[in-house]
Write a structure and sequence with these properties.
The structure holds 2 protein chains of 2 kinds.
Chain A lengths: L5 E11 L3 E11 L3 E5 L6 H8 L7 E6 L2 E2 L5 H7 L1 E4 L11 H6 L5 E2 L2 E2 L1 H14 L16 H13 L5 E5 L7 H16 L3 E5 L6 H4 L2 E6 L2 E7 L5 H9 L17 E10 L3 E9 L3 E6 L5 H9 L6 E6 L10 H7 L1 E4 L3 H4 L7 H5 L8 E2 L2 E2 L1 H14 L16 H15 L3 E5 L7 H16 L3 E5 L3 H7 L2 E6 L2 E6 L5 H8 L2 H4 L11 E4 L2
Parallel strand pairs in A: 3-10, 3-11, 6-9, 9-10, 15-21, 15-22, 17-20, 20-21
Antiparallel strand pairs in A: 1-2, 1-4, 4-5, 7-8, 11-12, 13-14, 13-16, 18-19, 22-23, 23-24
Chain B lengths: L2 H24 L6 H26 L7 H18 L4 H26 L3 H20 L4 E2 L19 H18 L1 H18 L5 H26 L1 E2 L7 H11 L11 H20 L4 H26 L4
Antiparallel strand pairs in B: 1-2
Helix pairs in contact in B: 1-10, 2-6, 2-7, 2-8, 2-9, 2-10, 3-4, 3-5, 3-8, 4-5, 4-8, 6-7, 9-10, 9-11, 10-11
The chains are: A alpha/beta, B mainly alpha.
């Protein structure tokens, strides 16, 4: 691969939310290259792409596009300068036609009226570019499936005169044929001198598309490869680091009774025949890439999105499918949802109401709320989970992320559930609150509860979990007892290509058993 | 009851008192028994409908059908007494039950089919009006003396028995809202329904029940109206839903749900009724009355929005 002139140069890009996400990243994109960004969840790939695409601004660092300084204030500004990004979450309007979706920001008009003929013509060209030329431009977008919508989004980007095109996991929703078509277009664009930034989790795509691969870990570039023929085990090692198992491996193997038994759970393509057990006294981790099905599994167990088949049993209870959260709560399960602000809290209402939201209301007699008892019950929970608020009358919307999570946690502890399903329980939570939440979860299992905890952060899994299950494409593909290495878990999460790489030459890895 | 809420009520009482003072100065005979009787006659019906509407809106819904449901309940009441010869003690519960059934149908459709209550009640508004015409033969039914005592002013007090009944309803509805688990669930559902479901609460029963309550109170309002007029008018209640929503909003309940109070709505009703009576005494024309009432609604909502913005996210 010959190196073309540098199109976009970035130096010293840094970005921190509550913790640093990007640390002084430097990057030079060359004309005519497909530059693949790889890394584990949270390594900083999406943040980097978002900065290049004008969605967010870096805290420090500078960029140049061609010879000019480049500091886009918005996505539109970046597109104006020729840096176009295809977003992972789609930004389309189901009720409008394909043509309107493609050209919404530059609809052709004559004398103030829409020029429909011209719109159809341009849309036809744009659609055929992604192999959708046989679709009528006036068809509503809502009739397309997810993969085809992704292609519309890509067609929208291809239609712009772009110098840099960024694709964030574009093939996640595409069929093999659609992916092939996309690769053809990417190669054509590259031939025209466009620089392509390509974010992916799929190792098998690299030989087919990559001219350069950069590996991100903890917000830094840790490796760079020319060409796409790289041994998978090497990449996995670079993405995970050669972390030796540190500290607090949890105590002895749990001996408690089974508190949660899930058998053959099925829901769509994200939960496929999942079986697992959680025993009293243990925190079981759930690892996997974004989109592996962790959230969907927890919601299916809880009955929030009822499963199609399988069974769930709590303690000595009856095995069966939980068809609603109400049944799950009655059976003794609680859920800390991934999006606590939207799915967990009543933001405008006080802490008192939020911690006691659950059936049955703990301080009610015959449907009437006993106010003094309610206040003391809420106060007790506040103290127990250490919620930092001015009073129990403060609206939860005013609390920090960590304290909001403690409100949801406190609600379940007060409800006396036996099993807690935690979905990214400390995302967006500061370090101190994180420690408290982890300690509360350990205390909960020490009193005979069981926890199933999904997290994209290996450090969190290491800190609180007794063992870790790894999900990939809706299935549990591996199980690790304590003392696992990041490389081993990462390899399993990346699927079969990585799993073969595990074990050789690294004696810290002790996969307990792969797929039962 | 938290401090903010008491503050809101205080402001509404102040607004009402200044209206009374203003009209007292402008119109010679405003501060009289006659005005009290007029206002007291019209107030109870709107107050109980607004009480039901408050609960519906707090739970994140809306009930546009209350006016037609009231007319339907009135027609059932009239037919039962006039044609069936039923005693009041049987006819009144049947009228209230009629309203409750209409509310039950609304609630089941809204929850069962997952259709916004705005659309369901837009339809049932027409259905109930049609049923009213069918039952009454599109004629006003003269009920006559049997029902009048309910609306006659009690000597010395100057107010009819419907007023204390309405007050009891308002106080009961406020107590349900702030002191029961059912009321707590209504507020929570209006604030964030998905979160309530994920907390393990079945949201369907309270969401249906609140419409049953609203319908039953529209039925009660029909009894009040029939008592006042001595008849059941098939066109009764036209525009009642808008008057009730206006009173609820003036009373500080958020149209997007999750917060509000029934007592506030009662004060909203009081403000609107006083405004109407005062303008009438000043000899304001019907067009002017409507313009002023409309302006008052916008002013109240704007004041509320400005206050929230001032207080910022602490709202």
């Amino acid at each position: 691969m010959s190196a073309g002139p540098v199109v976009l140069r970035a130096a010293g890009l840094s970005k921190a939310w509550s913790v640093p996400v990007l640390r002084e990243i430097s990057l030079a994109l060359e004309a005519g290259e497909v530059h693949v960004l790889m890394g584990s969840n949270g390594a900083g790939k999406s943040t980097l792409a978002a900065i290049l695409g004008g969605l967010i601004r870096a805290d420090a660092g500078a960029m140049t596009l061609g010879d000019l300084p480049y500091a886009p204030r918005s996505r539109a500004a970046a597109e104006g300068a020729g840096v176009v990004m295809v977003l992972q979450e789609m930004n389309l309007f189901p009720g409008m036609s394909l043509a309107e979706n493609l050209f919404l920001d530059r609809l052709p008009s004559r004398f103030g009226l829409l020029d429909l003929a011209e719109l159809d013509r341009r849309a036809g060209v744009a659609l055929s570019r992604v192999g959708l030329g046989d679709l009528p431009p006036r068809m509503p977008l809502s009739r397309l499936g997810v993969g085809q919508r992704q292609l519309i989004e890509i067609a929208r980007a291809l239609d712009r005169r772009c110098r840099v095109l960024m694709l964030d996991e574009p093939t996640a929703a595409l069929s093999a044929r659609e992916s092939d078509l996309l690769f053809d277009h990417v190669r054509r664009l590259v031939g025209e001198g466009v620089a392509v930034v390509y974010v992916t989790h799929r190792l098998d795509e690299l030989p087919r598309i990559a001219s350069r691969v950069s590996v991100l870990r903890d917000g830094r570039f840790v490796a760079e490869h020319r060409g796409g023929n790289i041994a998978p085990e090497r990449l996995i090692e670079e993405m995970s680091g050669r972390a030796s198992p540190q500290g607090s491996a949890a105590a002895a193997a749990p001996t408690g009774d089974i508190v949660l038994a899930v058998t053959g759970l099925e829901r769509g393509s994200r939960v496929r025949g999942v079986s697992l057990e959680v025993r009293a006294g243990e925190v079981v981790g759930l690892a996997g890439l974004v989109g592996a099905g962790r959230t969907e599994l927890l919601r299916a167990i809880f009955g929030a999105d009822p499963a199609a088949a399988g069974s769930v049993r709590v303690g000595d209870g009856r095995a069966g499918l939980l068809r609603s959260p109400r049944q799950a709560v009655a059976a003794g399960i609680g859920l800390l949802p991934e999006d606590r602000r939207h799915d967990g809290l009543l933001l405008g209402l006080p802490v008192r109401v939020n911690v006691l939201l659950g059936a049955p209301h703990p301080s009610a007699r015959g449907g009437w709320i006993d106010r003094p008892r309610e206040r003391s019950a809420a106060e007790a929970i506040r103290v127990r989970v250490e919620i930092d608020c001015t009073s129990i009358e403060q609206p939860v919307g005013e609390l920090s992320g960590g304290n909001q999570q403690k409100v949801v946690l406190g609600r379940w502890l007060a409800a006396g559930c036996r099993v807690l399903l935690c979905d990214e329980p400390t995302r967006g939570v500061d370090a101190a609150a994180k420690g408290t939440i982890h300690r509360l979860l350990r205390e909960f299992v020490d009193r005979g509860g069981g926890v199933l905890l999904a997290s994209g952060e290996l450090a969190e899994l290491r800190a609180v979990c007794d063992r870790v299950l790894v999900m990939s494409e809706g299935r549990i593909v591996a199980e690790f007892q304590s003392g696992w290495s990041d490389a081993a878990v990462t390899a399993a999460a990346f699927g079969s290509a990585g799993r073969d790489a595990v074990g050789a030459g690294d004696d810290t890895e002790q996969p307990g058993s792969t797929r039962r | 009851m938290n401090r903010t809420r008491l503050g809101e009520w205080g402001v509404l009482v102040l607004v009402w008192l200044s209206l009374v003072a203003l009209f007292g100065m402008l119109a010679e005979r405003f501060l009289s028994m006659a005005t009290l009787t007029t206002v007291a006659g019209r107030l109870p019906g709107l107050a109980v409908v607004a009480a039901g509407m408050t609960l519906v809106i707090i739970a994140g819904g809306i009930d546009l059908s209350v006016g037609s449901v009231m007319a339907l309940a009135g027609a059932v009441l009239g037919v039962a007494i006039v044609q069936g010869g039923w005693p009041l003690t049987a006819a009144i519960p049947v009228a209230i039950l009629t309203g409750a059934s209409a509310g039950l149908a609304t609630g089941l459709l809204t929850v069962g089919l997952r259709i916004p209550s705005f659309l369901v009640t837009l339809g049932s508004l027409e259905i109930c009006r049609g049923l009213t015409y069918a039952i009454s033969g599109s004629q006003t039914l003269f009920i006559g003396k049997v029902i009048r005592p309910l609306a006659q002013p009690i000597p010395l007090l100057g107010i009819p028995p419907t007023v204390p009944v309405a007050l009891i309803v308002v106080i009961a509805a406020q107590a349900i809202l702030s002191r029961t688990v059912f009321g707590r669930h209504l507020v929570a559902i209006g604030a964030n329904e998905p979160a309530v479901r994920l907390a393990g609460i079945d949201t369907a029963p309270p969401r249906v029940a609140v419409f049953v309550l609203s319908g039953a109170l529209a039925g009660l309002a029909a009894v009040f109206a029939s008592a006042r007029l001595g008849s059941a008018d098939p066109n009764a209640g036209a525009g009642l839903e808008l008057a009730a929503i206006a009173a609820v909003v003036i009373g500080g309940t958020s149209l997007s749900g999750g917060t509000g109070s029934v007592v506030g709505s009662l004060l909203g009703v009081l403000v609107m009724a006083t405004l109407e009576a005062g303008l009438a005494q000043l000899g304001a024309s019907e067009p002017l009355k409507r313009i002023v009432t409309g302006a008052a609604i916008i002013a109240a909502v704007a004041a509320d929005a400005l206050r929230r913005r001032w207080e910022g996210p602490r709202g």
